[in-house]
Write a structure and sequence with these properties.
The structure holds three protein chains of three kinds. Chain B is mainly α. Classes of the chains: A alpha/beta, B mainly alpha, C mainly alpha. The structure holds adenosine-5'-diphosphate and magnesium ion.
Chain lengths: 271, 459, 462
């Protein structure tokens, strides 16, 4: 398909100066929902500890691609994925790789904050307890505290760890979800429009948090907000109608888009 | 090594920590996957258990009940011997004779008829196939169920010209003969514990061999009312009629009332505390134990209004009240599912609220209402407990001809039969009655499902 | 005039009145000078309104008359009977007398010679019946005529016929809705009334807290009735319901979980309706099944382990009742589990939880209130269930903790006390209402709590 080729060529362009180790990569990833093909063969490399943003008009397949990266598409009955997704050069769709282990390494934060109807403490402790990461209650306390600290929520909730997580404000809930993901020490964190349900102040706090996490985690962020992409990401990928149109350094994309569609989109002509 | 106190900026420490975590995750995997398998298996087991219960229930009932639809029957040549049937001409109403006088005369004739020894006809016919029967009339008469002499009498009453002729008739065998043939009693039991004498048992086997006794499809089960004196001819006709009358009452009472209430509550009632209360009340009424409705019937209809005991009219009223909430709830949920756009469209073209409901909303709701009503009626059809409390558990040997007559109902008949002392016979017959009831209920449910499928979501 | 003819006439009147209203209102659409006039309501409503006023009051009179006339006429006939004859008459004589004169006056005749006073009364009866009927017809006719005339007269372009007709419809609808309320009131009042009569015989304390149920051996006095202790029955009820829940909760809940979370849609679409068949089977069938199949099975099963299980016992009834309520628990739980938002599942799966971990640690805790509600509803079903326990519990009202023994329940006792001779004056019968009231209150409480919990739960995820 023509566009696919184009985008692969562009990939070559953008990778002229590799910035480090490749953490994840996708090769000819297609996703079908029943009969209809939602992604038409995506190729992409994601480098370790960089922040990459996915932008594009709604329905173009950003979330679908993001979910391929930790096999969350497995949970949708009608979804079928073909192609290869590699994590540290290992095919994550290979039967020998355990999806439980994969998701412990590639965590996910969702569009709508979804704390469990449990206490704040239990929300954070959920992952470590499942995976048997800690042995003692004291260790667990430490994991909870450090995760909440990294998510910048500790000071706000340290006195009410037993209060239900659902009682927090929207922004706090989303940070709780980020802390919950951090608690299992993932290598990659996927975020699907993490701020779309939040007010501007909460959004800026999350953006700050993303900045903090930069460097320790590989972050993949879907956003419909181009300013946000520009503010937080190192690289930006533009999707359109199930194709990856362009992937480049964020400042390049926003100042000097190579593709007409990208330019139209970021200048607000459609989307 | 502690896992949480790493400085996130310290890259090597972070990497070490992640490695450690991956190890621990990997260690936990085998156990967790085994647990997952076990959990899923438990789920499958639960579904399997529930399905097995359904299967066992149906197999148990059907395997017991199906044979009862075929009943041991003797085919005999009955000679309507004029020497035995000594009777006057059948009376005819003379001109100018009052109804009361004629009835008196006719009843006297019937009385004469009743004194005639129809058993003698049967005995003579039996003697033709078993010569020694004449010598042992007691044993011989145990072959044929006692109700068959009434059947012969009815033949004569209907058409006295039959006297003097020979007729090949199918006569139901005694219940114990049926039990013996079908092996529902241990053939090796001691003589003292057998229901039939050794001689009669020998004859039965002989007659089966001769082809005189055969299992024939039992019309008695469907055509006769209940009987205690002639167990083999006990049938469901009376109970069926009683149930039918009650279902008609439910149909013409509970359904319109329920639909009207639902329309009011869903479309017209102001949304306030009172409506809320009514809603809660209806939900609770739907969950009130059925026997409480029986108590209501006993005290209100029987005690206050002095309606007759055991009458389908009372049963119908009680079941209607019981079904009412079901119909209301079903209708309301149907009405709720109709998109408000249809109402606003109607109101938009200048229809009044009443017009929009009756001309636009209601027609769309009809399939749903029918489905709900049929399910409600099916539920009422199977209900037993409240009927016991309004006297319907008494034995009724005739088919009711009006809703004010004494009657039973199908489920009550099942209750009565299961308690009959002749267990060997009635276990099967009760199962057969259950099959009839279940067939009716399943048909009703199938109709409801068909309606729902057929008219589903037309908007 | 026979009823059929009367019905025919009323129907014809209905059509006629409708037509008259229709025509008159149509005429009004053009005034004298031939100008178009706008009617407030379409002619059909004028027609319907006229028809309503013509037929409905007349029909009301008919119903009322039918109800009252026989009693009034009987009273009138009895009033004119000679003293001498009245004196020797008992109640049943009176009934025979009334039937005889009905036969006489209807021309059916009597088979013996009627007495002179009977002939006289029969004659009076025919006269009164004819007169009464005529009076009724006259009243109906005048009401119909008046209704027709006045409503017809009223027709006017500005008459809000539609609104009036709609008000009639609404009042009818409200009247229908009140039946459900009246039923509840009827239940409460009648049971309360009869229960009060019972408590005139038996001290409420003895009833609610007594531990012996043995009301048969009574001396006939009205004071100090004993043996009406409810506790053995209550305990039997509770024990059987508990056994039922013990069977139904694991099976129903796990089945619901499997169907909503694991089962392929094909399995689900087959298995779900089959399981729901269990909910539609009449309870008498379950009772018979318990009696014939389950009881003997449990009994011989127990025997192989040296356990003495009676064929009709709390266990038998409980197990079969458990089978009956499986679909209540499974379909309600299924609904509730599917209502748990997908985002919670995703959150857990995204952290690397397995599906069963997600279900056990996130979905079920989130669904717990709803499931508790479902279980309470099922429990109230079990407590009010009658036929299974009538047939399979063994009917032995003793306080025992052994589920292998026969027990009795409140519902069984209600049936026992109210079948056979119905004598509503004795405590032996009246106790059924006291038991019924207690049962009603218990199930009502369970239902209200369950409904509140389920409603709260639904709101949480709306
Ligand atoms: N669960 C699903 N079932 C069927 N189609 C889906 C599903 N999820 C997404 N799609 C389709 O896939 C396409 C891409 O969707 P998505 O990845 O959610 O887009 P984005 O996140 O970029 O807005 C859309 O056309 C959408 O309709
Ligand atoms: Mg999306």
């Amino acid at each position: 398909m023509k566009t696919v080729k184009l985008s692969s060529e562009r990939l070559g362009v953008s990778n002229k100066q590799p910035s480090g180790k490749i953490k994840m990569s996708a090769r000819d990833v297609k996703v079908f929902y029943g009969e209809s093909e939602a992604l038409h063969g995506i190729d992409m490399d994601i480098y370790e500890n960089e922040v990459i943003a996915f932008i594009g008009p709604s329905g173009c397949g950003k979330s679908t691609f993001l979910r391929c990266l930790n096999r969350m598409n497995d949970t949708i009955d009608v979804a079928k994925v073909t192609g290869q997704v590699l994590l540290d050069e290992q095919d994550i769709y290979d039967p020998s790789l355990d999806v439980v282990q994969l998701r412990a390494r590639v965590g996910m934060v969702f569009q709508k904050p979804n704390p469990f109807p449990k206490s704040i403490y239990e929300n954070i402790a959920y992952g470590p307890r499942l995976h048997g990461l800690v042995e003692t209650r004291r260790e667990m306390d430490e994991v909870v505290e450090s995760s909440l600290r990294r998510a910048g929520l500790w000071e706000e909730v340290k006195d009410r760890l037993d209060a239900p997580g659902t009682g927090l404000s929207g922004g706090q809930q989303q940070r709780l979800c980020i802390a919950r993901a951090i608690a299992v020490s993932p290598e990659v964190i996927l975020m699907d429009e993490p701020c779309s349900a939040l007010d501007p102040i909460a959004t800026s706090i999350i953006e700050e948090l993303i900045d903090e996490l930069k460097g320790s985690y590989t972050l993949v962020i879907v956003t419909h907000n181009m300013q946000q992409a520009a503010r937080v990401s190192d690289k930006t990928a533009f999707f359109h109608l199930g194709n990856l149109i362009e992937l480049n350094k964020t400042d390049e994309i926003f100042t000097n888009p190579q593709d007409k569609k990208t330019e139209d989109y970021i200048t607000g002509r459609f989307g | 090594m502690k896992i949480s106190t790493v400085n996130p900026q310290d890259k090597t420490a972070l990497a070490q920590q992640r490695d450690l975590m991956q190890q621990r995750v990997a260690q936990s995997l085998a156990k967790r996957h085994a647990k997952e398998k076990r959990f899923k298996l438990t789920g499958q087991l639960a579904v399997g258990t529930a399905l097995a219960f359904v299967a066992i229930l149906f197999i148990s009932i059907f395997s017991k009940g199906l044979p009862a639809f075929w009943q041991a029957t003797l085919t005999l040549d009955i000679y309507f011997d004029p020497d035995i049937i000594l009777i006057d001409e059948k009376p005819v109403q003379a001109a100018g004779e009052s109804d009361a006088t004629f009835q008196e005369r006719y009843q006297a004739w019937q009385m004469d008829l009743a004194f005639i020894n129809f058993n003698g006809l049967i005995l003579n016919a039996l003697a033709e196939v078993i010569p020694e029967a004449a010598a042992h009339p007691r044993d011989a008469m145990r072959l044929v169920t006692s109700g068959e002499r009434i059947a012969l009498r009815n033949l004569v009453e209907e058409d006295p010209s039959i006297i003097g002729s020979r007729k090949r008739l199918n006569l139901l065998a005694d219940a114990n003969v049926d039990v013996w043939i079908k092996g529902n009693i241990d053939r090796d039991l001691a003589d003292s514990r057998q229901q039939l004498s050794a001689r009669t048992r020998g004859w039965v086997d002989q007659l089966v061999e001769q082809g005189v006794i055969k299992n024939r499809f039992s019309t008695a089960l469907f055509m006769n009312a209940d009987s205690r004196s002639s167990l083999a001819s006990a049938g469901l006709a009376g109970a069926f009629m009683g149930s039918l009358m009650m279902m008609l009452i439910v149909m013409f009472l509970a359904v319109p009332l329920g639909v009207a209430s639902a329309i009011y509550l869903e479309e017209f009632a102001p949304k306030n505390k009172l409506t809320d209360l009514i809603e809660v009340n209806i939900n609770n009424l739907a969950a009130v134990p059925s026997i409480v409705f029986g108590l209501l019937g006993a005290s209100v209809f029987i005690l206050w209004f002095k309606l007759p005991l055991s009458a389908p009219v009372v049963g119908g009223l009680v079941l209607s009240l019981m079904t009412l909430p079901t119909v209301i709830i079903a209708t309301r949920s149907t009405l709720k599912a109709i998109p408000p756009s249809i109402r606003s469209a109607a109101l938009g073209i200048g229809a009044s609220k009443v017009q929009s409901v009756f001309h636009h909303v209601l027609p769309l709701a009809i399939p749903g209402i029918l489905t709900g009503s049929i399910l409600g009626i099916a539920q009422a059809l199977g209900e037993t407990a409240p009927l016991l409390l309004i006297g319907m558990s008494s034995f009724v040997a005739s088919v009711p001809s009006s809703p004010f007559d004494q009657s039973t109902a199908l489920p009550v008949q099942i209750y009565l039969w299961q308690g009959n002392e002749l267990r060997n016979f009635f276990e099967a017959r009760t199962s057969a009655a259950i099959i009839v009831l279940l067939t009716m209920m399943i048909s009703l449910n199938a109709l409801a499902i068909w309606l729902r499928r057929h008219f589903e979501n037309r908007w | 005039m026979s009823n059929l003819m009367l019905a025919g006439v009323l129907l014809m009147l209905l059509a006629l009145a409708y037509q008259l209203g229709l025509t008159r209102s149509r005429k009004l659409t053009t005034d004298l000078s031939g100008q178009k006039v706008r009617l407030h309501s379409r002619p059909v409503y004028h027609g319907a309104l006229v028809a309503f006023w013509t037929v409905v009051p007349a029909f009301g009179v008919f119903l009322l008359w039918r109800f009252i006339q026989p009693g009034v006429i009987n009273q009138m006939i009895i009033a004119q009977l000679p003293e001498a004859i009245m004196a020797g008459m008992t109640d049943s004589d009176m009934r025979v007398f009334l039937r005889r004169i009905t036969h006489l006056s209807s021309g059916f005749g009597l088979s013996d010679q009627p007495q002179p006073h009977e002939l006289q009364a029969a004659e009076l009866l025919s006269v009164l019946q004819v007169r009464g009927h005529a009076l009724m017809l006259a009243l109906m006719a005048s009401l119909a005529a008046a209704g027709l005339y006045f409503s017809w007269q009223q027709i006017h372009p500005d008459l809000r016929a539609r609104n009036q007709m709609e008000r009639v419809v609404k009042v009818a609808l409200i009247a229908c809705s009140s039946v459900a309320i009246l039923t509840t009131i009827g239940i409460v009042l009648s049971m309360f009334g009869e229960a009060m009569r019972f408590f005139a015989f038996v001290n409420p304390m003895d009833f609610f807290f007594g531990t012996t149920w043995n009301p048969r051996f009574q001396t006939a006095g009205t004071e100090g009735q004993t043996g009406f202790g409810m506790l053995p029955l209550l305990w039997g009820t509770v024990m059987i319901a508990l056994i039922a829940l013990l069977v139904a909760i694991p099976v129903g809940l796990m089945a619901a979980i499997y169907m909503s979370e694991y089962a392929p849609s094909r399995v689900r679409s087959v298995a779900k309706p089959i399981i729901e068949v269990l909910a539609g089977i009449p309870t008498i069938v379950y009772g018979f099944f318990a009696l014939i199949t389950v009881g003997p099975f449990l009994s011989s099963f127990g025997a192989t382990f040296g356990l003495d299980i009676r064929a009709t016992s709390a266990l038998t009834a409980g197990v079969v009742m458990g089978i009956m309520i499986i679909p209540f628990i499974s379909s309600l739980s299924d609904d509730i589990i599917t209502q748990v938002p997908r985002s919670l599942r995703d959150g857990s799966l995204g952290l690397g939880a397995t599906q069963s971990e997600t279900i056990r640690k996130v979905v079920l805790p989130a669904a717990l209130p709803g499931i508790v509600g479902a279980i309470l509803l099922a429990a109230s079903r079990a407590i009010g269930e009658t036929m299974i326990v009538v047939l399979a519990a063994g009917n032995s009202p003793v306080l025992t903790a052994n589920p292998f023994e026969a027990v009795s329940t409140m519902t069984v006792t209600i049936v026992n006390q109210l079948t056979g001779d119905l004598d509503f004056a004795s405590p032996q019968s009246l106790v059924a209402f006291a038991l019924g009231l207690t049962l009603f209150v218990i199930t009502l409480l369970l239902n209200v709590i369950a409904l509140v919990i389920v409603r709260k739960y639904r709101e949480q995820y709306e």
